[in-house]
Amino acid sequence: MEKQTDLAKIERSAAIRRIVLKTVIYIMLSFWAIMVLFPFYWMILTSVKDYGKYNSEFIPKFFTASPTVQNYIDAFTTVDLAGYFANTIIFTLLTTAAMLLIITFAAFAFARLEFKGKNLVFTLFLSLMMIPNELMVITNFVTITNLGFRNTFTGLILPSITSVFYIYLLKENFAQIPDELYYAAKVDGTSDMKYLFKVMIPICKPTIVTVVILKVIECWNSYVWPRLITDDPAYFLVSNGIQEIRENGFGRENIPAMMAAVVVISVPLIVLFLIFRNKIMEGVSRGGTKG
Amino acid sequence: MKVVLQNLTKIFPGKSKKEADQVVAVNDFSFEIPDGKLVGLLGPSGCGKSTMLNMISGLQKPTSGHIYFGDDEVTYVEPEHRGVGLVFQNYALYPHLNVKQNIMFPLQNLKGKNKLSKEEMEKRVTEAARFVQIDSLLDRKPAEMSGGQQQRVAIARALVKMPGVLLLDEPLSNLDARLRLQTREEIRRIQKETKITTIFVTHDQEEAMSISDMIVVMKQGTLQQIGKPQDVYDDPVNLFVAKFLGTPPINVFEGKAENGKIYIGNDNVLYAPEVRDGEVYVGIRPEGFIPDPEGPLCCRLINIEVMGRDMSVISANNSAVSETVRSIINSDAGIDTDSEFIRFSVKPHKIFVFDKETEERLY
Amino acid sequence: METGKNSWKAWLYLLPAINFLGAFMVYPLVDVFVYSFEEGYNFASQSFFGVGLYNFSYVLRDPYFLQAVKNTLILVLITVPLSTGFALLISLGLSSVKKVKNLFQTIYFLPYVTNTLAVGLVFMILFKKTAYSDGLVNLLINRFGGSSVDFIDGPYWAKMFVLCFYTIWIVMPFKILILTSALASVKEDYYNAAKIDGTSKFRTFTNITLPMISPMLFYLVITGFIGAFKAYSDSVALFGVNLNAAGMNTIVGYVYDMLYGSSGGYPSFASAAAIILFAIVLTITCINLLVSKKHVHY
Predict the structure, then answer these.
(1) Which domains can be identified in chain A, with CATH numbers?
(2) Model-level ipTM above the cut of 0.95
(3) Rounded to 5 degrees, what angle do the CA atoms C131, C133, C136 make?
(4) Whole-number mean pLDDT of chain A?
């Protein structure tokens, strides 16, 4: 019977160790969750604080008893936040739509059609994936400037409406559709174009949705290229708008109004994320990076 | 080591907290496995046999009941302190380690007074590898070996720490038909030589019957029957066990008992005075039929498949539960293949009678 | 099928993509090298007066560039190991809990879908010391007996700390996501096998988990290096567009400043700097790949 108690003792100490470990893990996870959430909390909190009160708080308060929407009104009236918003929406929609069309055709050609030099062209496409964007921005800037497209939507959109990576992603998905479907459609006299729109695109809708979501995130957050190409606030996107607000807007010190603008800019993507959580996370793990 | 299971029950909570969602994987299970035996845990998939195995190994804890290894209760003991070896269905060999490193892995975990010297480990690994005849493959990675070889490595890894109980989860299911025969002989040999109490799980009754000292038949978490394979086959306790064992499977007819006589349709096939009057199922093993022009059971002849030593007579009977009745008959028996009907007499020890409601054995 | 006959059709489908890629990827790629060797290129008149390596030697001697290289290197060396290691810890924690795992995962991913510039402002406010308030972080430091530091306009190490902190905050979601799914893809059986054999938690981690997820880990390190070398907008978000004045410029920032902005108008210098950056990234990536070949076993 001695072995009995022995085992029991071992089990008890193991159980204690497990509980301690679990606690440590939960503390760590909660810690990082707070680190992530706190800036968001602070941004919302500050955005509803009264301007005068905010400035008189040497020790910032962690809550406010009298929330105000005045800052949001300021954000939309003092600076052209609505304009930045509209610009960004137009830019995002146009870029995503144009890109979708171009990459769908390209992916269709690579996946479905036979032509001379297909493998060579595809390899060349893939090798373009390795080249960092920074190398191309310089000449593109010069090209767009020379074409007189600075401060136009054309100039903003043109360089970002093709993506080798998305062509690749879509082509792989298209290629999984069995050949029989294509031959069956051919026998029925379906044209290539019709086959693409009536069969391939509906089948590959999940991938296309993923691409759209990733592209929308990318567009909404794009900063570098718009900054180079626009210096007229009438064409600013939200990122540039925020930067402009930071440098000049609201008389620099109206931080609550600034935070209101930040909240307004952040909300659309967060809402999009909360709705399409699984799609977005899956899409990102399949091919997104940040930076 | 003797393994005793006492009133073992495992309930998995459902998705919601409602009782209706609960899944009872193992229900009030008790049996004793004598030391040094090879036991086959047999049942259709989803009958809880893997859960049983996991509870014996300690990976899952029972909801209630007790498990004893020898005289020690191990119900709530963590797996590493139970001294069991477990061979996984897909072997779970570490893909980044070679065969030698894989087999040595459990030995390197030993701590304190059990710690082994390097030479000792090498020796044990070589012994284990030689025992399962993979000593020439020690430098290979799992991906570079066939399924059968991987299986041997997995067994060697389980044996190397000299477990008191060896557990195998569907050990043959990932092998092709030819390797299966070979490997099951191998498992039998290893068990005989090591004399380790071995429990393996399978859904293939042929596999279980062919090598086990004892089989345990399960259905939906409850124990049906335990015994030597031949005993269980010859003397099933209920319709489920009768149907589950044997290939080709037993033929089942709807019948009735009247005044001690058992009828299939209007044919009186058996005299069994202890069976009370009522509706019954009658089961007849394929080898229980004897072609006999005077025999009581009449079937429509459909086809005869010749298999050399034996032949398989396919016929139909309106009372049969399945569409065809299959009987195995010595090929010497002359059968008129052109006739429309065939009559059989039945070997009395190959026929079973079951209650229609409870499906319990009546005769 | 009939090759050749319908060839022109295929090219038609490809035409838009090829045109845009040609104009905005292939041509610029060639051109950037051309620019980098054209000495004294004048943007207004589009003329130059020589060909040679002057642009490179100018950039390599420019104190702003050297500062940018130093900043970038510090950023890379601090954030890549820290963020990868911390993400691994969090992912291990995540994969060992069942309750509220989804909630945690959702929260951890939030920084990925936020605008770098916008949230950067929040960080600036949290860390900044102004006439009205020392900022929340400084108050925390005071609470623990330290004295206030201006993290945004103050000493170099303080600014670098904020930049690294913000960069890690931004890159964590991607790393946690990838590592969590890598950990989830390790089959339960391996852990069960290890458990049966009495393997300690630590040994299970080093001998089973780590080798199994090593391909993903190296992928993260490589993409992490590349991403960190291209850092720019995080720095702008915290310190404003005039990064040279703040002493917090990065190599990419230097390229853009040379191209455009207060000190801009020099595509040749910008090209030279961009090519140097590309060379550095390429070298590091090759080294990474060589190391990973040695250590990733399958």
Answers:
(1) 80-247 (1.10.3720.10)
(2) no
(3) 145
(4) 86
Query: Taking CB atoms and an 8 Å cut-off, how many pairs form between chains A and B?
Result: 14
For residues B33 and B3, is the Cβ–Cβ distance under 8 A? yes
Helix ranges (DSSP H) in C97-155 = 101-109, 116-127, 136-143
Q: Is residue C235 part of a domain?
A: yes
Contacts of B109 in chain C (CB under 8 A): 197-200, 203
Identify the pLDDT of residue C139: 83
Q: The domain that contains C107 carries what CATH number?
A: 1.10.3720.10
CA-based end-to-end distance of chain C: 39
Question: Where is B30: in which H helix or E strand?
Answer: strand B23-33
CATH topology of domain B3-243: Rossmann fold (3.40.50)
* Chain B residues lying within 8 Å of C190, measured CB to CB: 92, 94
* Residue B348: other Cβ atoms inside 10 A: 12
Q: What pTM value is reported for the model?
A: 0.82
Residue carrying the six token digits 């691994």:
C88
A partners (3+ CB pairs within 8 A) are B, C
Cβ(B256)–Cβ(B280) under 8 Å? yes
pLDDT digits (tens, 9 = 90+) for C221-275: 988 998 899 899 889 888 888 888 888 999 999 998 888 766 667 888 889 999 9
Domain with CATH 3.40.50.300 in chain B: 3-243
pLDDT digits (tens, 9 = 90+) for B207-239: 889 889 999 999 988 899 999 999 999 999 999
Query: For testing the chain B interface, which of C187, C188, C192, C197 should be mutated: the one with the most B CBs within 10 Å?
Result: C197
**Strand extents, DSSP E, A112-268:** none
Instruction: Mark yes or no for CB contact A255/C125 under 8 Å.
Output: yes
**pLDDT tens digits, one per residue of B245-277:** 988 899 999 998 888 888 888 888 888 888 888
Residue C12 falls inside a structural domain: no
Q: Is residue C155 part of a domain?
A: yes
